[in-house]
Amino acid sequence: MQTALICHGGAGDIAEDRLGACLDGVREAGREGHRLLEAGSSALDVVEAVVRMLEDNPQFNAGHGSALNEQGQVVTDASIMSGHDRRAGAVGAVSGIANPVSLARAVLEDGHHVLLVAEGAKAFAREQGFDFCDPASLVVAHERQRWEEAHGTVGCVALDQHGHLAAATSTGGVLGKRIGRIGDSPLIGSGNWADSEIAVSCTGQGEAIMRTALAHYAACRHDAFDRLDDLGRAAIFHLSDATGGQGGLIMVDHDGQVGFGQNTRHMPVFGIGVNGEVEGI
């Protein structure tokens, strides 16, 4: 069966001198993810692996390179979802975890809950044997120096050889966010969604995305559009019309089509599907 994947590096304004590195980052992660799919890996394993690569890349607002909160700290959110069986896991307001998407995967596999936050998520991570890092090690120079640029989230959606879809999203959150703030990324149906027909990952202004349940909104309208790019434009129009918000989303469907939409200046994107290679910046 046709495999497909698309990943993003966040929606927003990115400094011109970083655009090339951001596009290179999503290309590298996307190509590796597609190689894994072609080798027989599951969509769930692949979206986790791709998002881990993006979390490890300091160009992106996730994991190593996350935006700083109001106290100058890195606190992250992430979620992951399997489409064919609707299993999902998510974590919010977590510190000291370099790859929060893998902690979200552990929540999914544990199966007792969907979303764990803050100290509860950290306690779960200890029980699962996760290694903790010094939160300061996740702060990169350009975030510490500027403390004013928000460049979104990272995410990946994939279709594997078995026809299964999956989605994963991870973020360092809004720059200067209040202590305790959680955005759309760990919220199933808002920033992340997968079912048997489509998988969606969103990025942008989290509060606006939450108010429109954007990922699920797009999924519910999948059948009304022949092209995912048209669906993406319609979903982003709804986001803007309903809230005035800005953002973007990536999608892959059960036919292997990939697509995206945005109303922000930038959104690094790379994908491979039945419609060939796609990319955006």
Characterize the overall form.
globular
* Topology-level CATH name: Glutamine Phosphoribosylpyrophosphate, subunit 1, domain 1
Strand % is 15-25%
- Helical content band: 25-40%
H and E string:
EHHEEHEHHEEEEHHHEEEE
Q: Compute the gyration radius: what is it?
A: 17 Å
Average pLDDT over all residues: 91
Unreliable parts: 143-150
Task: Compute the number of strand runs.
Answer: 12
Q: State the name of the first-level CATH class.
A: Alpha Beta
**Spatial order of strands in the largest sheet:** 4-3-2-6-5-1-11-12
Integer tally of domains: 1
Q: Architecture, CATH level 2? A: 4-Layer Sandwich
Number of helices: 8
What is the structural class?
alpha+beta
Distance between the ends: 29 Å
Primary descriptors:
281 residues; alpha+beta; Glutamine Phosphoribosylpyrophosphate, subunit 1, domain 1; 12 strands; globular
Outline the structure in words.
- With 281 residues, this protein is α+β, with helices and mostly antiparallel strands.
- The chain has a single domain (4-280), classed as (Glycosyl)asparaginase (Glutamine Phosphoribosylpyrophosphate, subunit 1, domain 1, 4-Layer Sandwich), CATH 3.60.20.30.
- It is 32% helix and 24% strand.
- It is built from 8 helices and 12 strands.
- The strands form 2 sheets. Strands 4-3-2-6-5-1-11-12 form an 8-stranded mixed β-sheet.
